[in-house]
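Hi L.,

As promised, Thioredoxin domain-containing protein:
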Amino acid sequence: MLLNITDLEEFKAILDNDINPIVVDFTAHGIQVKVDVNSANEVATDCAIKELPTFQFYLRRDKIFELTGADKDALKRYLDSCVVKAELQKEFDDFDVSDDSADY
């Protein structure tokens, strides 16, 4: 899913409401983007974007990775790691600590 984020409130709402891994692509105006730093400067500032392109990976509002530059192989590695972290988080969330029958 591609979202065009234009303000900080919308950006934070996406991070708060989605349990899936989120990749945020910060690029300049004129390119298909998720966050356009020219029209959403407040978002870029809040996320401390220093160079373009910048990819930030979030899981439940927490930034877990950041990649700058256009290294396709590194982007794939980061994305794969992000998916693994999301799967581990889901397993942790699904763990029932109230189950007295569990063997420890």
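Strands lie at 22-27, 35-36, 54-59, 62-68.

Thanks again for sending the construct details.

K.
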